[in-house]
Specification:
30% of the residues lie in helices and 21% in strands. By secondary structure, it is of the alpha/beta class. It is globular, with a radius of gyration of 17 Å. It binds manganese (II) ion (2 copies).
Length: 274
């Protein structure tokens, strides 16, 4: 069923990189922690929406991109090329981070296969910094780079509660649709025409639900609210990533299980996409 060599229309890909993090290391340990939690015997393999992820052939584990010795543009290229190859082979790709810097190359690879790509970005942070510590690949900057590329049709952000003056100006400059946490969650507004890539930063959740992240930002989404977004947003999901689990900060593996729960619903929706 879910061996490294099986083929399937959905590929799970680990991106164990955290050297673009600004505060703590640890997210490089995320892919294995999430895999372990997905396969944990404490839960069955059904998504809530009815998809049996234990059934043969629905997905396969494509392993990790070897990033230990790579940084900067080399890491970018390694991720971009691997995701692009999996897409060329007819897979959908669901990437497990790693910090949020991995989304820049992963989304760019998808944009090369899907014109008019929309981004649904769930995060405490807008990640729109023009620059952070002189590193254009910083995990604080992927959505600035993506909007500069001109390859993204719409960027819609949910869960945001850390806007400062610079990032508010960046959001206006790029025409980002920011749904700030303080205004509540209106799922009816999350409607997309054309292909959608979902990028989910685990720190979008309140740290009460997912303490295993590098940046604790109170006042966030509940696990149930994120599940509802994944299940109910209107649009055609063609690719996704789940980033920023930091196992070093987790408590009894509870955040890894939250990540696995969210991952299973994302996988089910990717599999269901026509
Ligand atoms: Mn982020
Ligand atoms: Mn974040």
């Amino acid at each position: 069923m879910t061996t490294d060599t099986a083929t399937g229309s959905l590929a799970l890909l680990g991106l164990p990189q955290d050297d673009n993090s600004t505060f703590l290391r640890g997210p490089r340990l995320g892919p294995d922690a999430i895999r372990h939690a997905i396969m944990c015997d404490s839960a069955n393999m059904f998504a809530e929406t009815g998809c049996d992820l234990g059934a043969p052939g629905l997905w396969h584990d494509a392993g990790d991109v070897a990033l230990e010795q790579l940084s900067g543009v080399d890491a970018y290229n390694a991720i971009h090329d691997r995701v692009g190859r999996l897409l060329e082979e007819g897979n959908r790709v669901f990437s497990l981070g790693g910090d949020h810097s991995v989304s820049y190359p992963a989304v760019m690879a998808h944009a090369g296969h899907h014109s008019g790509l929309n981004l649904l970005h769930i995060d405490a942070h807008p990640d729109l910094y023009d620059d952070m510590g002189g590193n254009p690949f910083s995990h604080a900057s992927p959505f600035a780079r993506l909007m500069e590329s001109g390859k993204v049709k719409r960027l819609v952000q949910v869960g945001i509660r850390t806007l400062n003056a610079h990032q508010r100006a960046q959001a206006e400059r790029f025409g980002v649709e920011v749904h700030e946490m303080r205004h509540g969650l209106d799922i009816g507004k999350l409607r997309f025409d054309g292909p959608v890539y979902l990028t989910l930063d685990l720190d979008a959740l309140d740290p009460a639900f997912a303490p295993g992240v590098s940046h604790h930002e109170p006042g966030g989404l509940s696990t149930r609210e994120v599940l509802t977004i994944i299940q109910e947003f209107s649009g055609r999901l063609v690719g996704a990533d789940l980033v920023e689990l930091n196992p070093d900060r987790d408590i009894n593996g509870v955040s890894a299980m939250v990540a696995a729960k969210l991952a299973k619903e994302i996988m089910a929706r990717l599999i269901a996409t026509a």
